[in-house]
Specification:
four-stranded antiparallel sheet; 2 domains; alpha+beta; Butyryl-Coa Dehydrogenase, subunit A, domain 1; globular; Butyryl-CoA Dehydrogenase, subunit A, domain 2
Length: 228
């Protein structure tokens, strides 16, 4: 692949942001075992860096995969592994399915503020007994009228203690394990910024590495979310 002037300009913009806004604070954030995700993501969002490959109508740049690759490579200039990991969850784990398959309403409510950096997203797939074996997850989302009622829990959730919403994988039927699952945009907080009723961050996990990226365990008890 031949890099163009536009690729180099994108790389230079991100590298400058890293040098000015992230690297001077890495040691402090690693010691505190958390970084200010809302502040960092908002700064990146203002520069368009969280939606390089996302649709323009929701605030993205609408560029192809090669620009995403340049972003991923440039994140290697951050002087730790934790913050690039958290950024990658935001841009390449929690939001791609929403961008490709989500309804217009869901994109407006969750994708757009994630691209702008106003929302921190997390991915809810792994559970205590289900890591690589995703088909064995136990979390359920049962239909109740026009809503889902969510019960279960998630583990090893990157950015979990700070996240505004979760891209949650849940069992939505009694069909075979590889055919009964749905990704659901689950708002984690109410209008006051507190976790919604039924959403519990059970603990923030202590890790040997990746310390400045917070990692959480969640429990869900009768959490209602609209189908749309």
């Amino acid at each position: 692949m031949q890099l163009t002037a536009e690729h180099h300009a994108l790389r230079d913009t991100l590298k400058k942001f890293i040098e000015n806004e992230i690297n001077p604070h890495v040691d402090e954030w690693e010691e505190k075992e958390i970084f200010p995700a809302h502040d960092v993501f908002k700064g990146m969002g203002d520069l368009g860096l969280l939606g390089v490959t996302k649709p323009e109508e929701y605030g993205g740049m609408g560029l192809d995969w090669s620009y995403g690759a340049v972003v991923a490579e440039t994140l290697g200039h951050i002087k730790c592994g934790a913050i690039p990991m958290a950024i990658g969850v935001q841009t390449d784990m929690a939001t791609p399915a929403l961008a490709k398959f989500g309804s217009d309403a869901a994109k407006e409510d969750f994708l757009k503020p994630s691209i702008s950096g106003d929302y921190v997203a997390c991915l809810g797939v792994s559970e205590v007994g289900s890591g690589s074996d995703v088909a064995s997850i136990k979390t359920t989302a049962s239909k109740d009228g026009d809503d889902y009622i969510i019960n279960g829990g998630k583990m090893w959730t990157t950015s979990g203690t700070q996240a505004d919403w979760m891209c949650l994988l849940a069992n939505t039927s009694d069909d075979a394990a590889h055919r009964n699952k749905t990704l659901i945009c689950l708002p984690l907080k109410d209008d006051s910024g507190k976790h919604r009723d039924g959403v519990t961050v059970a603990r923030k996990l202590k890790k040997l590495g990746m310390r400045s990226s917070d990692t959480a365990e969640f429990f869900f008890e009768d959490v209602r979310v609209p189908q749309r």
